[in-house]
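re: that chain from earlier
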Amino acid sequence: MSDIAPGGLPDKRRVAESFSRAAGSYDAVAELQREVGSELLADLPELVPARWLDLGCGTGHFTRALAGRYPQADGLALDLAEGMLQHARPFGGARHFVAGDAESLPLRDAGLDLIFSSLAVQWCADFVAVLAEARRVLRPGGVLAFSSLCVGSLQELRDSWQAVDGFVHVNRFRRFEDYQALCAASGLEVLTLERRAKVLHFADLRALSRSLKDLGAHNLNPGRPGGLTGPARIRALMEAYEHLRTDQGLPLTYQVVHGVLRKEN
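^ sequence. v structure.
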């Protein structure tokens, strides 16, 4: 039986198009993604999966890492952004590279032993559906390992914009307490769930902003200002952010959620 079920995707074009455009530049600026995904790999419990899924595979870096870790297993890579899949496919690592949505997986029931998802589910509006789908497609004893972002991420940028105007310039994220409550109510056993702060530093605001754009992670929220941000507001933002400068540069904090959940036998 095929793992891939018929059915269309929800209309999430803004997210998919943004990350598709970033596919070519993503790996060059993905320091945070590499570090967080490597930690998530290290968090995995001992298991010998026959079939795994890299959920939100992006350019396929961790698809290939999973293939190296579980060489006898059958791998599947899935992403909402077709541009990312086109970038990942030539490098291999999975049997199938599939366009799909974490909130409505195009997969059959109880067909996976491991779902690995690093820094993808923060873009999903319905995390309850993500957890329900994971529970549906995992076999008994199967593991969902995910990393995400929560409130407090990009706080320095948010605070600096607040000193300039009242528009939504920075992506919003769920509270860590929401992750705790939703995971506890998911029907999956919570093995670990914790929050870890990661701080990056940049030489200037241009480098910081460029890194967000190259990652496809610039502001995707409703309520964001339309059109180009004027030079006066950019100068005001630079002035506000400069007050936060340290010896290492302009700081940008990510509050990273690490979760490992298991479907009970």
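The longest strand covers residues 189-202.
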